[in-house]
Amino acid sequence: MCKLHINLYLYIMDNKKQYTELLVDPSSFLPGVSIDCVVIGFDLTELNILLLQLKKHDLWMLPGGFIHLNEDMDQAATRILEERTGIKLPYLKQFHTFGDVNRRENTKFPGVNHMLGEPFEKMIAFLEKRFISSGYLSLVDIRNCAPTPDAMSDECTWIPVNLLPVLLYDHGDIVKKAMEQLRSRINYMPVGISLMPEKFTMKEFQTLYEKILNKSLDRGNFQKKMLKLEFLVRHEKKLSGGAHKAPYLYSFNKNRYNELVEKGIGYIN
Amino acid sequence: MCKLHINLYLYIMDNKKQYTELLVDPSSFLPGVSIDCVVIGFDLTELNILLLQLKKHDLWMLPGGFIHLNEDMDQAATRILEERTGIKLPYLKQFHTFGDVNRRENTKFPGVNHMLGEPFEKMIAFLEKRFISSGYLSLVDIRNCAPTPDAMSDECTWIPVNLLPVLLYDHGDIVKKAMEQLRSRINYMPVGISLMPEKFTMKEFQTLYEKILNKSLDRGNFQKKMLKLEFLVRHEKKLSGGAHKAPYLYSFNKNRYNELVEKGIGYIN
DNA sequence: AATTAATGTGTAATTTGCACACAATATTTA
DNA sequence: TAAATATTGTGTGCAAATTACACATTAATT
């Protein structure tokens, strides 16, 4: 779903204001294909997913959009994501294309049948056709990310993956598939650099792995394994964390880390 | 590319015969999206890929087609593959969607500009629009497969992967990505059951792995590893294979094998 | 100064990976 | 008929990785 899409539908719902400046000629888009982004962030405790909300209808959805005719699909995904989060150069990868006939049947837009003014007709016709959607998985640092809800007051919020509301269309399936992808390809994705803050404790890093893999890991073995790979730089200790030994802070040697990710590192076997 | 597409273009090239009975209303297809199948077979020596050839133009391409409006994308892939190979219930999985603007620029159809009769105009207009294409990887037993070239005398042939000709559009990239997918997911695909004949020797099974992984494996370790997993059933020996000890023949315990493939087995680490 | 709770590291048992050796055996050949 | 041949089936030893703990360390609290 792109801004255009949302705004248009909001217009349909409200039927008050004029948002014609947001209208784009749908013939500039590749028909039949949309892009949906599963943007994952980590708050050092839980994995979160970036969702858009249409407040009036309590309707949640993935940020998405359409592909311009002169635009590569990957470019379109990058553009759409930047429009939504303000983040540039995120880790972003296509993971699956969803093409069931009924993929929009589960949770539909409410009240689409209400009608509206003339300039929207082409767009409505475009939107109501059948679409397949390519899912893109993005890993971003939740702290560098400025989700920007658009002019129409819909919200753009991080929601914990285990507390997801019912989503539009098949977006729930798309998120599920993205999480499976993340789990099964964890060794080949830069989960650390993409999801962790600049400095972090080993415990926090381990929590990331545990949340992705959905199982607990042995603390000692995790620490030794990660240290032996030599992509972590140790810094000063983090004090005042409680009545116990203070942990070191770590950061990434990015060159070394990216090298290793190419070949596949980590904690699946 | 589907029969329709090929035949249509042959018509354009020849401009002699009438194949109007093959014409389909393009509005019955989802616009902007095609499917291309990378069908892989194993002849006990090499991996082969099923290609279609337009003889007159020495043009090779993947079997492909379009998605009917009332058809799931996976269904469409199954249908297209069955039309091409006669095989039902193959292993068939979407692996990537190719969406570059220029994906049809490298190797184009020759001489599309020649014109033609009226009933084709809609179809031509449909075909010349921009398409993205979802790649499906299929693993089939080359011996149970009856490739059926269509009425128009194009060929449908198994070609060894290391001897591929230049392919239409970006089909070379699609094959390459499919092979990477096969290699990296070998432990999660039923490569054995899908690609091997009913009975086979351990040597032949090992060759399959070596061709997929593109490296040689230690014979003794391969044999022990596979036997320990207990999905192979040992049969009588295969005699008259030369001046040496005769190898056993093996087949799959399909239940056990499929169980293991679910969890991931095999020879990547 | 003792207690507490979490961190950093060590160790032993087990499993797996890897390289190679050796024995077994259909067929060929002398 | 017996030796030679080439390939299969299996064993063995060493290195590396995995796993499950144990133990020592230490910043803050009591």
Written description of the protein model:
Two copies of one chain form a homodimer. Chain A has helices at residues 3-14, 73-85, 121-128, 171-184, 191-195, 202-213, 219-228, 254-263; strands at residues 29-42, 47-54, 59-61, 64-68, 91-98, 132-139, 155-160, 232-237, 248-252. Chain A has 269 residues and is of the alpha+beta class. The longest helix of chain A is centred in the middle third of the chain and has 14 residues, at 171-184. In chain A, the strands form two sheets. In chain A, strands 1, 2, 3, 4, 5, 6 and 7 form a seven-stranded mixed beta sheet that branches. Chain A is elongated and about 65 Å long. Chain A is built from eight helices and nine strands. Chain A folds into two domains: 3-184, Nucleoside Triphosphate Pyrophosphohydrolase (Alpha-Beta Complex); 187-263, Arc Repressor Mutant, subunit A. Chain A is 31% helix and 23% strand. Chain A binds chain B through residues 30-33, 67, 69-74, 76, 94, 96-101, 130, 132, 134, 184, 269, and chain B through 30-33, 67, 69-74, 76, 94, 96-101, 130, 132, 134, 188, 269. The structure holds a DNA duplex (30 and 30 nucleotides).
